[in-house]
Amino acid sequence: MPHSPKGVRYDNFYTPKNDDFYSQFLYAELGTADRRIRLLRIRCLGSETNDTTPVNCDLLDNLSLAMMTGGYTTISYFAGDPNATEEININGKTFNAFANLGYALRQARRFWMAKFPHQELLLWADQVCINQSNVSERSSQVSFMGDIYSGAQQVLVCLSTEEGVSGGVAWLNRLSRHIPKDYGLLKETDSDDDDDYSMSKQKEFFHAHWHEEDFHLGWDAFIRTILTSRWWSRAWVRQEFIRSPKAILLAANESIDWVDFWPVMDIYYTATYDFDEPRADFHQRSNHGFGISNSCMACVLGEDSSKFWTNGKRIHRMLGAKRSSEFNPGRLRDLLANLRDAHLCEASDSRDLVYAFLGLSTHNYDINPQYSPGSCLQDVFLQLACNVLSHTNNLETLRSAYLTQSRRISDDLPSWVPDWRNCHAFQEGHFKFPEEPATFEKQVSCLREDDQGRKDRILRVRGTFCQTLHSRLEGYHPSFISAVGDIIPTAGAVQDGDEAWLLYGATNIFVFRRQEQYYHLVGEILSVDGPLPMVHRLVKNLRDMVERDDANIRFIEIC
Predict the structure, then answer these.
(1) Average pLDDT in the 223-247 region?
(2) What are phi and psi of 467, to 5 degrees?
(3) Taking 90 as the threshold, does the pLDDT of residue 154 lie above it?
(4) For residue range 158-195, what is the model confidence (pLDDT) as tens digits?
C-alpha cells in the first residue's frame, strides 16, 4: 500500500519540508523480508551538462539489495541546514533536497562523466531513497544501512560545499609524491624507518616551498575544504566510509582515492607541530607584496591551531578505522568499543550517536533504531545499559558509567548507565576493559522502577561492604588496606562517608555515595602501582558466598 497520501501528517525529523512532493509522489512500500531499497538513476550525463545543471533523475523502487550488490554507488555528504535547499527533479516532480545534497549529486555527476562516461550512474542517497515521511520505513532502512554501503561498488564522499575553494586535492597530490608508494599499505605494521623518512621528506618539501604563493593557496584550500570539512564530524558518515569497499573523496571539483589520501594525512597529522616553519619571515614577505598572509589559514592561525586540530584527530581516527577494516575485511568491533568514538561525532538527532554505530558493530545487544517522538537519547542509553547487563551477565559497564560522569548530558540519567557522549574519558586516563570479562553463574542484577514509577531505573545487585571512605586517605581498616594496598579512588574527590563495595558480577571495588535508600556510583578503587593485590581472592570469596546463599551477602540498589 502506498504511503503519505495527501492530507496525512507525518513525522519528518531533520530534513527539508516536502509536503507537495509527498502529496504528488507515492512511495511504494518496501518489502522487509528480503531487504528492499530504492536507487536514483541520474540523467543528463551528456556533454551539454555542466556543473550547475539541475539534477534530473528517476527513482527506481523496490530493488533487492542482494540482487543489486556491487551494481550501484552510494553518496555520503554533510546535510547542513534543512532550510537551505536545492531543487532536484525526481520522476518529473520537484523535490527539495538539502542544498549540500544537491551540490554533492552535481559533484558525483561531474566525477562520473569524467571517469565513466559510458556507464549508467545508479546512486543511493538517504534523503531521497528513504521515504522520510514514513517513520517505520526510516527505522527499518537505518537498521541495515551499513549493509547498503558495504554492498555498493563504492562511496563518493563529498567533503566540500558550494563555497569550497579548489586546489586542496592538487596540494595533497604534491605532498604524496614525497611518500613511498607502499607506505603502510603492503603491511599491517608500519615501519618506523618509513615514517621517519617520509616525515623528513615532507618537512624538507615544506621548507623548500614555503615562500611560493601557489603552495600556500593549495595549503589553505586543503585546510578550508578538506581538513575542516564538517563531513568528518557527522556520526553517520563513519559507517558510510568504513563499510564501503572503496571510497573516493570529492572536494571542489577534484577527487582523490582514500588510499592515496590517508598516508599524506597520517604524516601531516603527526608532523604538523614539528615543521618549525619560518612564519615570521613569511609574514614579513607577505606584507611586502606577497599578498596572501591573511588568506592561508595555517599561517594566520600560527600556533593557535585548535580550530582544525580537533578535526585532524577525527580524520586520523576514522582513516585508521578504515585502514583496519581493509586489513581485516568483515571483522567488526563490538558496539561498546565503537561507542568510545561517539564523543568525536555530531548528529542532528542525538539518538543517532548510538544508531549510527550499529552498522559498524558485530554485537548490537538487540538495539534497533526507534525514531518515535516519545524517545530521547537518555532512553537509548538506558535501554543499551539494560540490554548489556542481560547479554553479558556481568557489571563491567559500571566502569564506563563512572568514567563518563564528568560531563553527563543529564543529571536524570542513572549513575550506573554510561553516557557514551563523554567517552573521551577513556583516552584521558589509563583505563582499559578486560579482554575477557569474567563470567558468573548466577544472575548478577535485576532492574526495578524508581519512586516515580519509571521502569528499569534502579539496579539491584549483591555484594559485600568493604569500608567507609574519607576525603583524606587515612583511617582505613587494616584488612581493607591489606587487600587493596595504597588506594586511589577515581572519578573525582571522595567525600567523607562514601562507601567501597565489592559487587557480585564485578572484578573490582567500586565507590558509592548514599542517596537516601539508594546508592550513587561515583568511582572505583585503584592501586597506586597497578592491579589491585588480592582482589581476585576477594572476588572468589564473594562468588562462593553467593553460591551458598551466605547470610552476610547484602543487596544494594543503585540509582
Answers:
(1) 92
(2) -170, 145
(3) yes
(4) 999 988 889 999 988 888 777 765 565 434 444 555 55
Residues written for the chain: 559
- In this predicted model, what pLDDT tens digit does every residue of 299-347 receive, in sequence order? 766 545 565 667 777 888 899 889 888 887 777 889 998 898 888 899 9
In the block, residue with C-alpha cell 558509567: 401
> Whose grid coordinates read 558509592?
512
User: Starting from the edge strand earliest in sequence, which strands make up the sheet with 36-42, in order?
Assistant: 93-98, 85-90, 56-64, 36-42, 122-124, 73-76, 154-158, 247-251, 254-257
**pTM, full prediction:** 0.81
- Contact criterion met (CB below 8 Å) for 173 and 155: no
Identify the residue whose cell numbers are 590517508.
262
Report the relative pairing of strands 518-527 and 73-76 from DSSP bridges: unpaired
C-beta of residue 404 within 8 angstroms of C-beta of residue 490: no
C-alpha cell at 366: 538487540
Query: What's 504's DSSP letter?
Result: B
At 85, give phi and psi (nearest 5°): -125, 165
User: Furthest-apart CA pair in the chain: how many Å?
Assistant: 86
For residues 391 and 383, give the distance between their C-alpha atoms in angstroms, rounded to a whole number: 12
Domain extents in the chain? 19-158, 168-229+261-327, 335-558
Tell me the one-letter amino acid at 65.
L
Helical axes 213-221 vs 168-176, angle rounded to 10°: 110
Rounded Cα distance between 30 and 140, Å, is 10
Q: Return d(Cα 516, Cα 346) in angstroms, integer.
A: 37
Q: Phi and psi of 530, rounded to 5°? A: 130, -145
Q: Which amino acid is at 238?
A: R
Count the neighbouring beta carbons within 10 Å of the beta carbon of residue 255: 18
Angle at 263 between CA 257 and CA 266, to 5 degrees: 125
Q: Are 296 and 212 in contact (CB under 8 A)?
A: no
Count CB-CB contacts under 10 A for residue 514.
12
pLDDT band at 505 (very low <50, low <70, confident <90, very high): very high
